[in-house]
């Protein structure tokens, strides 16, 4: 993670290009995609792949710099499989990314920010399929999950020159513990496709 932040800082220091939208313009970007999410500090866990989608607004401050904020529904959690047991922890959030965007070449932006997230759904889903018994079920674990989560999103986006389609890839680095009584934090790779238009 430190190497990623260092690379972002180097790119910011060498900027000499500009964005594709006029200074002072405000754009809106609906976007949809997927998360590859996990919890830290859980041995042998597998990522949960889930939906990510919402909308972001962006204000172009200068030729190379903009600020953006949005609301993204984000399906997070992790999976665990061992022997006859399959377990999935589902933690879904409404995330509010607040980002600084620096355009290093036309259409290509380096992004860094802060992101509060608000837990809206939490479940434990488990299945057991032994030779003498088959069982599956789910239970709510929302009381154990903290209501508010904070993370640092860092990433890249690219807007195509001829159509206002934006590809966005970012990593959400969890800062706060997911649940009371545990040490795990959210770790989420997010990939989305958006359509940007001027207001």
Structural class by helix and strand composition: mainly beta
Mean pLDDT over all positions: 87
CATH architecture: Beta Barrel
Order of helices and strands: HEEEEEEEEEEE
Dominant shape = elongated
Overall number of domains: 1
Number of strands: 11
Care to give the gist of this entry?
This protein is mostly beta strands and 199 residues long. The protein has one helix spanning 2-13; strands at residues 26-39, 46-60, 65-82, 85-95, 98-105, 108-129, 134-140, 148-159, 165-177, 185-195, 197-198. Strand 5 (98-105) and strand 6 (108-129) form a beta hairpin.
Characterise this structure.
The protein is mostly beta strands. It has one domain: Beta Barrel (Porin). Helix content is 6%, strand content 67%. The protein contains one helix and eleven strands, in the order αβββββββββββ. Strands 1, 2, 3, 4, 5, 6, 7, 8, 9, 10 and 11 form an eleven-stranded antiparallel beta sheet that branches. It is elongated, with a radius of gyration of 19 Å. The protein starts with a helix and ends with a strand. The relative contact order is 0.22. The mean pLDDT is 87.
